Amino acid sequence: xxxxxxxxxxxxxxxxxxxxxxxxxxxxxxxxxxxxxxxxxxxxxxxxxxxxxxxxxxxxxxxxxxxxxxxxxxxxxxxxxxxxxxxxxxxxxxxxxxxxxxxxxxxxxxxxxxxxxxxxxxxxxxxxxxxxxxxxxxxxxxxxxxxxxxxxxxxxxxxxxxxxxxxxxxxxxxxxxxxxxxxxxxxxxxxxxxxxxxxxxxxxxxxxxxxxxxxxxxxxxxxxxxxxxxxxxxxxxxxxxxxxxxxxxxxxxxxxxxxxxxxxxxxxxxxxxxxxxxxxxxxxxxxxxxxxxxxxxxxxxxxxxxxxxxxxxxxxxxxxxxxxxxxxxxxxxxxxxxxxxxxxxxxxxxxxxxxxxxxxxxxxxxxxxxxxxxxxxxxxxxxxxxxxxxxxxxxxxxxxxxxxxxxxxxxxxxxxxxxxxxxxxxxxxxxxxxxxxxxxxxxxxxxxxxxxxxxxxxxxxxxxxxxxxxxxxxxxxxxxxxxxxxxxxxxxxxxxxxxxxxxxxxxx
Length: 508
Prior knowledge:
4 strands, two-stranded antiparallel ribbon, 25 helices, mainly alpha, globular, single chain
């Protein structure tokens, strides 16, 4: 008899009743990426489940054709040391120094905006969607924020680090993030010196990043902080200052020795709580907000067996009956990033004006590179509140029509950045999509866009209401579409906007 965990992780191809179709392939692409066009989903359907999951998880053979982000002298300005900074600033007057630092701040802010748009474009255009989805996962786990780091290039380096280890070793990534200039600055380990230990990084490393509360003591925090002394950065690179390092004996999680940061990571990854912590975070991110304990235990075991490599664990998860169960499919509230990227992918339209779209995301509660605190962003129902709800409903409609919603006259949409969305030309042509799909009736159009945008069954009464809207009558009977009628285009846009405003569209 199978155990509960083995049953949850039973591969779908060993279940004769499992059907690989548009709905299941769309689910894989939504969760392991950010959704896709009908053509993208059709490709996965034709591949079959084995090849589709393999292609998503083991993407390294697919070329990364997207360009890196370029940095100029000002946006990449980091003095190697205090002496270099003093030599540069000494000839400048007080006014010139003030103006120089104002220019640096303005350039850094502008570069961050550019970088946010650059990353969204990667999410949309990549042929390796899991790479970007895992980059977002690590970005929300090993948190740092531009407002504290105040260096756009260092945030970019960290983002590239997450991308490098996207499906690689969590253990090796933890060592590398401990040497990352943005993280060293964000959690003050660059101020951690012998005799004056700063406990910020030592505490968050265990509490939020690797183990979770209740699996260590305050004394473990103090001993760990001593081990991280002397770990800092100069300019853009990590350096270790041995004369600032506490080389005395330390006792940490039951182990005693002259430990440094590498030793601390090694000991942390020997703890059963660490595997469970990462397994829970993965399960909650990719399946449900409250995953079953037996699933977490099974994935934790897989993590240890795979030497902390994420790819085998993700393959097992994406191949499991649990991943495609009714408890998981269409049950997870989309984060603002998933909502924005998924909408752009589903409509197959370009990213609109940078500032307008980024402002909209921020109004929904998520700003890339600026998590609210070291604990990261909320999840699940926390995304939905009175401040974010209208934005979540209005944003898809703006992408369809290129116009602000009617309520914008008296809302935060009047912010200058939000108003720039009115400049967006969507390029979305629903009648052309219907023609390519061979759809020529109003009921067929409703079914086509419900499948494309929601990929699941909806209440038949809602379907009939949508047909009535398209028919402009109280009849839900299918009627022929007339592309020559000038009003057809706008009625189809209204149809798509209504579907994307449905509560079902908020789920993936």
